[in-house]
Amino acid sequence: MKQFSYRYESSIRFSTPVSAHSWLLRCMPRTEPFQLTQQCRMQVCVTFGDGTSLPVPVSHGRDGFGNALQTGHVAREHVCFSIISEGTVRQTPYRICGTAHGMYLEDTVLTQAGPEMESFARQHCRRMPVSCSLPHGAVLDRALSLCSAVHGHMSYVTGVTTVTTTARQAFLTGQGVCQDYAHVLIALLRSCGIPARYACGYLSGEGATHAWVEFFDEGVWRALDPTNDRLLNYGCIKVAHGRDSADCPVNRGVFTGTAAQQNTLVIKVEEV
Are 81 and 11 in contact (CB under 8 A)? Predict the structure, then answer.
């Protein structure tokens, strides 16, 4: 067992005051068999035009996938919205025993595989009916092969994709960020009859939020990071999962106003 500290710090500065700001966050660790939160703290603040800041109430709940939700609303005009979420978690190797719902084999708008992707998958993973039992280790071998293939096919390039870019679009251009790598791998795994879902959270080190893939293997969900071509074990703090990225955005909000936004995000995870 290992222990990790995490700190998620985000701020959104608005060019002109906004109001009626409703927000929804998924920035606290999920409760999972491999991950136990030891302590956690979260604070949301707004800054007003006169430079004063005020903490705002946070409501806690869960979505349909069991992800922890943090929500709230600020009616008063403000020029900055900031979040700090921090704490420590204990982890065992990344394994989640359970079952796989049929939705994790179904295409979504963001994860539908085109014919060229199905051809690509066949080069690495012969499709078998879902009802067939695969030899021991076959699912893991195929998943690892597809993960390496995606890593080799894609180039990490920022600014060429958006939150609405589909797996097929990213695959055809061969470029994208971690969200795109995950969508492509999910589409390929499902095309081979392997249940797969999108997961996101924080990786060891400093940076931004990260996306990876969970796949179902003989009663156990395991995690693959196609961006870095590796099977995950320790040091990735999971905050959410879903069918694709649209099911589990980390930070979403709506407000009244036409302000431009300047976003700052710093995440740090380290073993303690």
Answer: yes
